[in-house]
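FW: tagging you since you asked about this chain on Friday. Here's the raw sequence from the shared folder, copied in full. Didn't touch anything.
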Amino acid sequence: MNNFQQYHDDQLVQLIRDDDNIAAFEVLYNRYWEKLLIQAKWKTGSEEDAEEIVQQVFMNIWKTRKNLHLTHSFYTYIASCVKYEIMATIARKQKQKTAHHNFYTATGQEADNNTAEWIDYESTRRQLEDTIQQLPEKCRLVFRLSRENGFTEKQIAEKLSISKKTVEAHMTRALKALRLILHQRIPFF
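HL: got it, structure written out here
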């Protein structure tokens, strides 16, 4: 096994690029990760963000190793990569912070209204269900077959062995009772 510790950065980069040499990559990683982590932590103020940035940069280098052709030193290259990743991270975090702020500003008032609306909806729904329960049995059955099961008046008449006119009368009675409740709860209804 070669001792890549003695190799210059350019030699290690060439081994990584040409031979997919993981050991050479590990040497470069171990050589520079701590310096880069300190730089990233100083700029971001977060050790967690700094670790993610350095990891991301090294992962990107490994992924694009076949196209890695340096005009300056490896450290200059990787320090620049970290710098750009820091800027991207700060911009992304700022964008998220702005989006969260805008979301909570826009929905803060709505959350209070939504709770009240939900309570009102539930109350109205319960009141409508109570009204349906108070309908005569045949009327209630006709209403449920129509509204909950989607049966037509003709299908209901056939199923219950009653005339279509009787089905219409039961529906009229049920809807009249429900309109009265809705009119009390929602005046414009």
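FW: The first helix runs from residue 9 to 19.
HL: agreed, and The mean pLDDT is 86.
FW: great, closing this out.
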